[in-house]
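quick one: dioxothiomolybdenum(VI) ion bound model?
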Amino acid sequence: MSAVEQPVTPLERDAIRSVGTAHPRVDGPLKVAGRAAYAVEHREAPYDARPLHAWLVQSTVARGRVLAVDAARAVAHPGVVSVLDHTSAPRLQEGEDRELEVLQDDRVDFRGQIVAVVLAETSEAAREAAGLVEVAYDEQSHQAAFEETEDTYEPETVNPEMPARTEEGDVDGALAGAAVVVDATYETPVEHNNPLEPHAAIAHWDGEVLTLADSTQGVHPVAQTLAPLLGLEQAQLHVVAPYVGGGFGSKGVPHAPEMAVVLAAMTQPGRAVRLAVTRQQMFALTGHRTPTRSHFRLGADADGRLVAIEHEVLEPTSRWKEFGEQTAAPTRMMYAARNRRTGHRLVPLDVAVPSWMRAPGEMPGMFAHEVAMDELAVACGLDPIELRVRNEPDVDPETGKPFSRRGLVDCLRRGAERFGWSERPAEARATLEGDWWVGTGVAAATYPAMLNPGNEARISAADGGHYDVAIGAVDIGTGARTVLQQIAADALGVDASCIRLRIADTDLPPATVAGGSSGTASWGAAIVATAQRFRADHGDAPDPGVWTQAEATDAQSEDHALHSFGASFAEVRVHRWTGEVRVPRLLGVYSVGRVINPVTARSQLIGGLVMGMSVGLFEESYRDPRTGHVVTQDLATYHVASHADVRDLQVEWLDEEDPLASPVGGRGIGEIGVVGTAASIANAAFHATGTRVRSIPVTADRFL
Ligand code: MOS
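yep, here:
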């Protein structure tokens, strides 16, 4: 069953009937009825094979060696089956990802690392016994505080493979001659992804095939990553993820807990092993956003036209596995300035490895850039929207390519009109209503349109005019199941009710990660290509049973810069005596190409705004430098925005399509909503109070 490669042409406008219409989620009824099985809820074979429960034992030192694991008391506990440690766990093949080398040696690289796994007949017994495992350490000195150290270095690349440093023109000369200069440092804290469903998996090994129901953003990526480490062929690793309760990037790559449950299952052939990572354990084991320190120097002429942009980033990585957040990446394409310099330097710390968190790079980087732009507007005596309009580039400053669509100014103008921007007083600290200082702020957003290669789909004709459409894509709650059905319907020229979609299973054609706002475009491209091929081969009235499998290639323009844009508007109220910060109004206007489904799109963008408000006002993890322990390891101490924080929240998008970015005409919507929101809140807080806050979260103490 070999895949057919062929170029794909965009969906024809006159063939579009389902795309763009407001389909409710096809899996909504199942979810609200509680009948959608999430990872550890699977009860069917082989997961019904008297499942065991795994519990993780985590290191209590930040760096050192495990001298001994004494499991005697744990093993004696009723219901306990075994305790695995680095001396007894199955051996892995050599790999390049230290994070997945679970229980392979005695080295401890960070506080909270997995040092043992308890297997028991019940979850309670496993948990109780985990507390009885005694681990002796040879503790070594560690560095867990984020501060510049002598180990600080410049990496070659930042996530995923961008150059760490870029330079064009004479930045220092231009700054020296600039009429106006903004020179300031902006900071974002450690943040932890907290999807509603914590990480979880259930694994079964029959001696030949490993079956894994995982809470992941990509079943094929999990199989592709784990199989070689386990010494298995791809076909021996069967991964499914039919329902996933969010990920925000933390489930974008497999982390140590997945490997732990797989290793545990391989010691118990014929039995299923369940692992439900606790909320507390997630703060050590499933990724986080590294803190960032962005030093900006902006130089402008007297009219506010930028002559120089410099963005130097200092941020931690883990000492044992490099992850460089691409914090300066958006700065490279955002505004016009002949002289530009961006760079990243990394401080290696003895901490868990940072990873993807919704809009990695863009979120912290654009917070810094957009507050700096607000400061420049004030310094130039210009309206912040006008400042941005004056600095619109004709082409992508970094690549010289034309933008497929540069929607920023349209977003700013539309948002200004809807938000009532013209009523805004030019001066800060101009409005006091009762005991509240009131202000408004704006910030721009951007996110690249990514299209991942390597996606395939299979379409088979079924009885009664139905089509079975299959692709390994995962719906992490975004609505992928619904929009892929719409895309398939239009590509085949049938009603959406004729499509029977199967997803989230490595037995289906390969699909890339539900991440990087790339899913709908990338999987959609494969479905469109396959449908075109299917119709060419089998016509519009195919015999039941005929099928086509194809791969999408060359589906995105290489001659254009492909980016979404947005404008975030915030109203902020700051209490004059307590400093309490409230956000009564948020509006986001976006240029994202064609919107496939306004119901699920609105949900994604609103969710982005809520998360943007959440990082703007609340989210901050505190790692105790003495121990390396993240002490804010629950939702009582790690605050996320709750219902009472969300007031009037509006999103809209421009009516457009972008066939250069993807065959479905869309550029992705999963992440852009979170970009720019925190900056608009900080800028509004300045407008309200006259106090400039250069770091998030924007907390009450800043105004006292
Ligand atoms: Mo998103 S951080 O690319 O899963």
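Residues 1-7 have pLDDT under 50 and may be disordered.
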